[in-house]
Predict the structure.
Amino acid sequence: MTDIKSTLVKFQSIIALLVLCIVLTILSDRFFTLENGWNIARQISINVCISVGMTLVILAKGIDLSVGSMLAFSGAVAAGLLKFGLEIPAINTFVGFTVFGAILAGVVVGGALGLFNGWMITRFKVPPFVATLAMLTIARGATMLWTGGFPITGLGENFAFIGTGWFLGMPMPVWITAIVVVLAVIITNKTKFGRHIYAIGGNESAARLSGININKVKIWVYTIAGILAAVGGIILTSRLDSAQPNAGMSYELDSIAAVVIGGTSLSGGRGSIMGTVQGALIIGVLNSGLVLLNVSPFWQQVIKGLVILVAVIMDRLNHPHED
Amino acid sequence: MTDIKSTLVKFQSIIALLVLCIVLTILSDRFFTLENGWNIARQISINVCISVGMTLVILAKGIDLSVGSMLAFSGAVAAGLLKFGLEIPAINTFVGFTVFGAILAGVVVGGALGLFNGWMITRFKVPPFVATLAMLTIARGATMLWTGGFPITGLGENFAFIGTGWFLGMPMPVWITAIVVVLAVIITNKTKFGRHIYAIGGNESAARLSGININKVKIWVYTIAGILAAVGGIILTSRLDSAQPNAGMSYELDSIAAVVIGGTSLSGGRGSIMGTVQGALIIGVLNSGLVLLNVSPFWQQVIKGLVILVAVIMDRLNHPHED
Amino acid sequence: MEKKPGIFLEAQNITKKFGGITALNNVNINVHTGKVNAIVGENGAGKSTLMKILSGVYPDYEGDLYLNGEKVNFSNPKDAMKKGIAIMHQELNLIPYLSIADNIFLGRELHNALGVLDSKKMHKKTKELLERLNCNLNPKTLVSELRVGEQQLVEIAKALLEEAKLVIMDEPTSAISDSEIEVLFKIIASLKEQGVSILYISHKLDKLRLIADRYIGLRDGNTVGTIENAKEASKEDLIRLMVGRDIKNIYKKDSVDFGDEVLRIENICLPKVINKSTFLLKDINFSVKKGEVLGLFGLMGAGRTELLETLFGLHSKIMSGKIYVENKEVRIKSVRDAIKNGIGLVPEDRKEDGLVLGMEISKNVSMASINNVVKSGFLSTKLEADLSKKYIEALKIKTPSEKQLSKNLSGGNQQKVVLAKWLATSPKVLFLDEPTRGIDVNAKNEIYHLINNLAKKGLGIVVVSSELPEIMAISDRILVLSDTRITGYFDQASANEEAIMKAAVV
Amino acid sequence: NKKEDAPKKIAVVISTLNNPWFVVLGESAAGRARELGYEATIFDSQNSTSKEAEHFENLIAAGYSAILFNPTDSEGSVSNVKRAKNAGIPTFCMDREVNSLDGPASQVISDSFSGCVELGEYFVRKLNKKGKYVELLGLVGDNNTWNRSKGFHSVVDYFPELIMVAQQSADFDRSKALEVLESVLQSNPDINAVFCGNDAMAMGAYQALVAAGKEKEVMVFGFDGADDVMNAIADKKIMATVMQSPKNIAKTAADLADEFINGKNDFSAKTPLEVELVTQENINEFGNYGSKK
Ligand SMILES: Nc1ncnc2c1ncn2[C@@H]1O[C@H](COP(=O)(O)OP(=O)(O)OP(=O)(O)O)[C@@H](O)[C@H]1O
Ligand SMILES: Nc1ncnc2c1ncn2[C@@H]1O[C@H](COP(=O)(O)OP(=O)(O)OP(=O)(O)O)[C@@H](O)[C@H]1O
Ligand SMILES: [Mg+2]
Ligand SMILES: [Mg+2]
């Protein structure tokens, strides 16, 4: 019974995806091509990266509204350090950065912002919604301050490779995202840490009484979300060859949508990384398909909203007894 | 004991507000003037309107992300009907609208969108976050379709009175908002319906077993949120003498921030309308104060985020034992 | 259908399915007017489900209900209320952040013509109701500030608010004390005199026998018979009606030779968080030996749960005192420390604190000892399945497989899963807080035997219970806690009900 | 307790600081005002007319002497300007106009429509009057989007062999433009040109062409004269853009405000500043955000 049900859950979004693909293939002969496949894969890679982090956060009964801003700030930091280096006037020092160094710095900054989120949430019991809402504003302001409102462009061939290069027949962003997904699937299914995330989301007090260090797990989860936002930010910066101060605006909604369409429960404890990947695919295929069909931009929004509703309602009709 | 605590909760945001006001009065001689007072009141009036609806929704353990889009659509509908009337080609009829008729139509449209949200949430068990996220997109697209992407302007003196006029020494938007607040306070504290909202947010299954018609209450709550978003949309349209297709973008976050800073729990069942008003005041005073103090727009975002954090942390430190 | 004299409500051929599970299968019962109709049955027999149908919670079922001979069909709880059926559910159904009065009047608020609530009248009425229950709480108090027992009193008050013709009580006494039970029984008696019918469900058979007029037996969703004259039925008859066979009821712990001392605590104190000069626990000392079962008795709110939690590292920041495990002093600052030092706690509220209900049995079992199922850095599904299978077998957990979600198990089986979780940590000492609350006789017995076997294997066990006969049956020694202190100490020889009770009310 | 000797304050209200062009506009205006001895503050309306209304109310309350104003909307901003006028504070519009002749003291505008007319003519020439092209619109609720689009189409639509195969919105955003054009290229791999409503989208579109290996075949046209597009034109990557020099506009507006404060009050309602077409041929005549002339 349970098994059939959980299989159905998995098939759920796959079916929605298939239906969508079939419709698009009928409507446009350009849709079902390898090239368009890579295209969509590359386009969703950033959302998948972020949404993997978001999935972990939501599984642990949290939410992270700040992913877009963290993405922008980390990307800007990496780009700025790469292009201009870091001047420390106090000790009269200038530090140059290699591509690798700049990326590392961006990721560290993303992790630090996420850590701050986690710290606020665990130490001061600030509700996740509020803590990350504040971070949304703060990190955006910080990005503006760091960039002065100007994009940082001209980042060089090596850096551009991350976002635009190909490796063994697959685009680099897809490689990076694939690695992130594989690691996340292993973590959620096969490690203590992953199990603890589910346990906390399922029943925090039972998890605490089983000796799980709730705060530590939560802090890690938010830190990972920050790191993955940074990875997304670096891919985006590299693809555009430019760190945009307004990058990532309202990405949090896209990301939460991917997670929820993928069947993860917003009340925690239930869901999967692969579901999220499917959710992001549905959104990505839809976005790309609507453009491919040259649907008017006005109608695109209406259609997107309706498809999200239909996807979730289909899901609900199959599981009437869950909250 | 309880009384002291709940008094403290109330004083909590008032104290934060007072501290803020005192600091601003010291820093700027322009702050503590009657003119600036009305100014701030007028500015927050729209956010308060929306946030009152949001408070009801959150008290009933929901969330409404679509307020900004509903605001835009209702405002555009009212403006469009007022200016162009309604042509019904099928029966070859043209209907003109008075100011009152157009406003009514806008409010009805807002209510209908809210009703749709409520219907999705109760009938199809779509999680509120998702249902209203979809509505956010759909209503925005509908606004674009209705306006063709162009603002609708030149709405006449009578219509402008709502947003810019004065009555008995008080600006009209402040009157409207004050009436909304008073009604909402009465509803939440003094009526069955209000009591049932708290009950549903506090423990839905217990509320159901007590014979409360959960679905009806929820549908009403979302409908009211839609109506109040429409009221906000009409005030905004009237103030600007223009229905902007982009109006109300990201208002949902401002509104949720006001509710949460005002001490209402995102997990439902606990909070108050007056708290929300104070929350909106804190945000409004902060916005206005940062401008008066000539703070750079980039820093404003950082400071705003930090103040939200501090406000909520102060609240938490006073109530360490609640989740 | 014709009205039958003496029968208030008749349920005919009631069948109720949840998905694939048949909870009720052609059930027939009669509720006699002005009598206490007791329903008995094991966990999961379908008692609460039947009550929910009678009170309009589940409108979709097969079969017919007749009220005074008239066919009725309740589509929601309000319908049933209107027909004079009041119910007190098994689970507490209160809104934590509303006041007592608000809760009692929830869904049937008093208001004036304008729809404005009449708080004064509601408070007054609440006060009267509470006084009837010998309870002098302020009607304005928030329910979240009440103890569980007090909340149960509010539930009872809620069921008594309207002049109902049938009052259904599903486990009304699971959390209230003996003196409060007495008050309740008096109220039931007076209701009976007024001709009100009562449907009463309880697993506390001894208490049940004091008030029941007739018994209706339910087993696996089927009616298995009634005993019309309760006074003539012995406890054994009652158990046979429930379980379908005899159970050796008089359980007595095997006496074994105790081993070395495994746990000793000295001068444990726990101040209140808000007012640090007053205490929740003061100068508690005791010790437990290997193979010994120490019973911890006390009335509701005596501080027993707090004591176990303190020893388990949940209040490490404010507690003081010393804890020795196997004669070595240990510092327990967190649950992890407690586990490392061989202490396990089966908490009082298995749904809130014991289980992740949405998780498989196997994952719950391994939760506190997850390192045992890690193989070269990763969780091993096989090791995990083996671990849980071992305990499913050893504890006779009734389930189709270890992959079953915990929320689909009956209460007793859920309790066993929590037990399994702690046994998997290979503890030296096990704390059991009210391990049999809400559990039927049969499952209770199984748990007693389990405790006995664990002790035999050399565990030190501390059991908290509010039921005197239970604690006397299973303990080697009994400590009585009252008003933050230890007020009594008894061994097998000196223990008798009167003396223990006396110590508990000091 | 007014401080008599304190410097007068000038407010610079900018529609958005999320785009470098406007950042330059705002900073140049503030910078010029400071040069002239004023205290200057920049306000960011974040593309929201209601935010802008709040700024106006706040700065009226705060006692500013003049407003250098980059409106969010030609219609929606009118009421704000009037409110300031009623409070005795003159408004000088920069770059975008408001539809009111008596509201603002003067409007220093660059004419988006005619700029795009000129660009459209160049576009037609470069494509030899035939070919397939894609248009990337800005925010669909923004009237700049439509001014530019209409100016462009007022020319291009006369040539039936110039076929617009797709018209999509990319919200004035570089990454959206990249994604949208990537998808468009799937269904229309054989396009000859892309017209973008601003330079950020032009850069994004160029990026998409690079990824598809089509950057040599497809011509990209932008609008604004942003730094990186100017560089890209110099590198022969992008065909053309329209330079509406933010520095120039800002300086002119600030000077007008200074004159007003010093007593002058008869300004012509509009002070048009020419926009200039920047192409690979004339790129050498331009510096950052302005003509070298
Ligand atoms: N909402 C539900 N969904 C699925 N199964 C249910 C539901 N409620 C009850 N059941 C199942 O129906 C059966 C009867 O449950 P019920 O709660 O009526 O038992 P009970 O006799 O009241 O037991 P207890 O003595 O433990 O209270 C059980 O097998 C239970 O698992
Ligand atoms: N969360 C809490 N907040 C405030 N007081 C509490 C809380 N939990 C327990 N108490 C108080 O602490 C005292 C001890 O409670 P505890 O739960 O330990 O008693 P107990 O003997 O285990 O009783 P029970 O059988 O109800 O569990 C009681 O007076 C109770 O009111
Ligand atoms: Mg039951
Ligand atoms: Mg207890």
User: Anything to note?
Assistant: Residues 214-240 of chain A form the longest helix (27 residues). Residues 29-249 of chain A form one domain. The mean pLDDT of chain A is 89.
